[in-house]
Structures are given as C-alpha cells and as structure tokens.
C-alpha cells in the first residue's frame, strides 16, 4: 500500500509509462532504438552546460530509468538503458553522448554502455576511465 501511495506522489508518471512502453517495444518487436549519430572515438564530446529545465529533465530521466530497471520483468541491461536514455533525451532535443567501452577484469572481457548529458551521468553509472571506449554516439 505504501508503494502505491508513493507512486501516485511521483511526479514523472507520464515519462515512466512512456519509458516502460519503449522498453517493451524494444523486446517484443525486436526493434532497436538507435544510440544516435556515430561520433569520433578517442575524445568524448563536450557540450555546453544545460539550462535549468534541461537539468531537471535529465534528472527526471535518470529517476525514471532507475524505476524501469527495477520493475521491468525482462532483463534490462546497460545497453537497453543507454538506448532508452538517448531516445528520451532526443525527444526533448537535449544533447547527450552514449559510450560503449570494454575492460578486462580477472581475464574476462566485460562490456558496458553509459549515457552522459550536460556532465550528468544519466545511466550506466561507472568510472569511464576504467573502460577503453570503442564507440561513442551523440544526439
């Protein structure tokens, strides 16, 4: 009952349901949301600071993705989350970049994807310096 009450107080219900629908769309119809335009690898893009509205929206997307990751019934990996974050930010014409990187840990190669907008890590919380970035996409 407490969870239901707190959900109704949650201000980003519309954004949550849009994100949840897009997450299902990725899985059910096999369609992939594009990461964005391919950027030069080797140097991460630098965007100007976001306005106050943009910062609020980026933080809302961050909260919504955390909820989708928690309640989505299928495996929701970092690559799905990064695509969805990029799509949500593109809808509001907010600049972002999504990176895909790899690192070797105990002899095993691990891949990871993360999205950053205006210096705020939206999803895929990690230390980017630990990864060798192979692809970067901007939007």
Helicity, in percent?
Answer: 40-55%
Q: What is the N-to-C order of secondary-structure elements (H for helix, E for strand)? A: HHEHHEEEE
Largest sheet: 5 strands, antiparallel
How much is the radius of gyration in Å? 15 Å
Termini separation: 40 Å
Overall structural class, as computed from helix and strand content, comes to: alpha+beta
Secondary structure: number of strands: 5
Please state how the strands of the largest beta sheet are arranged side by side: 1-5-2-3-4
Proportion of strand residues: 15-25%
Number of helices: 4
Unreliable spans are none
Morphology call:
globular
Mean pLDDT: 83
Keyword list:
single chain, 139 residues, alpha+beta, five-stranded antiparallel sheet, 4 helices, 42% helix, globular
Concise account of the structure shown:
The protein has 139 residues and is of the alpha+beta class. The protein is built from 4 helices and 5 strands; from the N terminus they run H-H-E-H-H-E-E-E-E.
Overview of this protein structure:
The chain is an alpha+beta fold and 139 residues long. The protein has 4 helices and 5 strands; from the N terminus they run H-H-E-H-H-E-E-E-E. The protein has helices at residues 2-9, 13-28, 52-71, 78-91; strands at 37-38, 97-105, 108-117, 120-123, 132-138. A 5-stranded antiparallel β-sheet has the order 1-5-2-3-4. Helix 2 crosses helix 3 and helix 2 (13-28) crosses helix 4 (78-91). The radius of gyration is 15 Å and the shape is globular. The mean pLDDT is 83.
């Amino acid at each position: 009952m407490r969870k239901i009450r707190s959900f109704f107080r949650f201000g980003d219900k519309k954004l949550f349901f849009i994100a949840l629908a897009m997450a299902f769309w990725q899985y059910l119809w096999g369609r992939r949301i594009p990461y964005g335009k391919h950027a030069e690898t080797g140097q991460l893009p630098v965007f100007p600071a976001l306005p106050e509205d943009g910062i609020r929206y980026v933080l809302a997307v961050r909260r919504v993705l955390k909820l989708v990751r928690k309640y989505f019934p299928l495996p929701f990996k970092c690559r799905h989350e990064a695509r969805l974050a990029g799509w949500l930010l593109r809808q509001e014409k907010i600049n972002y970049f999504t990176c895909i990187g790899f690192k070797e840990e105990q002899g095993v190669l691990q891949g990871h994807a993360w999205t950053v907008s205006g210096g705020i890590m939206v999803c895929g919380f990690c230390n980017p310096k630990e990864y060798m970035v192979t692809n970067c996409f901007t939007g």
